[in-house]
C-alpha cells in the first residue's frame, strides 16, 4: 500500500537515470513529486510533474521554485541530482571547462539549496539530499575535476548540516559507485588531448567501462535516496550499493599505501 503524507519532493536532473528512478521511488513512498530537466517537454514517471530548470541559471531556478510553491505551497525534500561528468587528465581541461563543470555539479547544488532554504526555514522542517559519489571520498585518476566537484559537495553538505539542524532541516549525502545509466555515455571529454596521457587514459577508460557494466542499477540508488529521505534520524552519508559500501569501509580502515596500490591495480595503472 502506498504511504501518504510524506510531503512535497523536488528532484533535479530527473529525466533519466538516477533522477528518473528517484522520482518514481519517492512517488511510491508517498511523496508528491516534481522533477526537473533542462529540456522542455521531458517526461517523468506516472504521477510525477516535470518542470524545466537549468541549475546554472539563477532566473531559471527562481522560476522553478515559484512554480512549485504556487501549485504545492511547500517543499519538504530537495534532491540535488543534476550533474555532468568529465573524463580525462586534469591537465587536459582548460580552466573554463573546469569552471563550467563546477557551475553544474557544485554551484548548481548551492543555487537550488539557497532557493529552498527560506521555504524550509519558514516551515521549520525539511530535508536536502545531495547526490555525491564514491569519487567524493576517494581519488579518481582521469576524473580529477569531477572528483573535485564531488569532494566539494561533501564538504559543503557536512558543514551545512551542522548549520541547519537547529532549524529543523537536515542535509544528507547519497554516494553511488558505478551505476548503469546514460550518464557515462554522455560524459564530457576534455577540450584538449595530450599524448602524454593517451595510453594510461585508455587503460583507465576500459577499467571504468567494465566496472559500469557490472555496476548498480539506478533503482538501487533510488532505494537509498528514499531511505535517506524517510529515516527519522538521518545519517550524513549513505553509500548506495554494495561496491560503494565496500569502498567506503576500505577507505576508512585500510592503510593508505595498501588502498593506493589496490586503487591503481583496479584502474589498470602501473603499481
Automatic annotation (TrEMBL):
It holds the Pfam family adh_short. GO terms for molecular function: oxidoreductase activity. Keywords: Oxidoreductase. Gene3D superfamilies: NAD(P)-binding Rossmann-like Domain (3.40.50.720). CDD domains: 17beta-HSD-like_SDR_c. InterPro entries: NAD(P)-bd_dom_sf (IPR036291), SDR_fam (IPR002347), SDR_oxidoreductase (IPR051911). SUPFAM superfamilies: NAD(P)-binding Rossmann-fold domains. The keyword Membrane does not apply. Belongs to the short-chain dehydrogenases/reductases (SDR) family. This is Oxidoreductase. The lineage of its organism: Bacteria, Pseudomonadati, Pseudomonadota, Alphaproteobacteria, Rhodospirillales.
Amino acid at each position: 500500500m502506498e504511504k501518504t503524507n510524506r510531503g512535497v519532493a523536488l528532484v533535479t536532473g530527473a529525466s533519466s537515470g538516477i533522477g528518473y528512478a528517484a522520482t518514481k521511488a519517492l512517488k511510491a513512498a508517498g511523496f508528491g513529486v516534481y522533477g526537473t530537466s533542462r529540456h522542455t517537454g521531458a517526461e517523468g514517471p506516472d504521477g510525477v510533474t516535470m518542470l524545466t530548470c537549468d541549475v546554472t541559471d539563477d532566473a531559471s531556478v527562481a522560476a522553478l521554485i515559484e512554480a512549485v510553491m504556487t501549485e504545492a505551497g511547500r517543499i519538504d525534500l530537495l534532491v540535488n541530482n543534476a550533474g555532468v561528468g568529465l573524463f580525462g587528465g586534469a591537465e587536459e581541461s582548460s580552466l573554463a571547462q573546469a569552471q563550467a563543470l563546477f557551475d553544474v555539479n557544485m554551484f548548481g547544488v548551492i543555487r537550488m539549496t539557497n532557493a529552498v532554504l527560506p521555504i524550509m526555514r519558514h516551515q521549520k522542517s525539511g530535508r536536502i539530499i545531495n547526490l555525491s559519489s564514491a569519487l567524493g571520498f576517494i581519488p579518481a585518476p582521469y576524473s580529477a575535476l569531477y572528483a573535485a566537484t564531488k569532494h566539494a559537495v561533501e564538504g559543503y553538505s557536512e558543514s551545512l548540516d551542522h548549520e541547519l539542524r537547529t532549524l529543523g532541516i537536515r542535509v544528507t549525502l547519497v554516494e553511488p559507485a558505478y551505476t548503469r545509466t546514460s550518464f557515462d555515455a554522455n560524459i564530457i571529454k576534455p577540450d584538449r588531448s595530450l599524448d602524454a596521457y593517451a595510453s594510461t587514459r585508455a587503460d583507465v577508460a576500459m577499467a571504468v567501462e567494465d566496472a559500469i557494466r557490472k555496476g548498480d542499477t539506478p533503482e538501487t540508488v533510488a532505494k537509498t535516496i528514499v531511505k535517506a529521505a524517510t529515516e527519522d534520524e538521518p545519517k550524513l552519508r549513505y553509500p548506495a550499493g554494495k561496491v560503494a559500501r565496500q569502498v567506503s569501509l576500505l577507505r576508512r580502515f585500510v592503510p593508505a599505501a595498501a588502498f593506493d596500490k589496490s586503487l591503481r591495480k583496479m584502474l589498470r595503472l602501473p603499481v
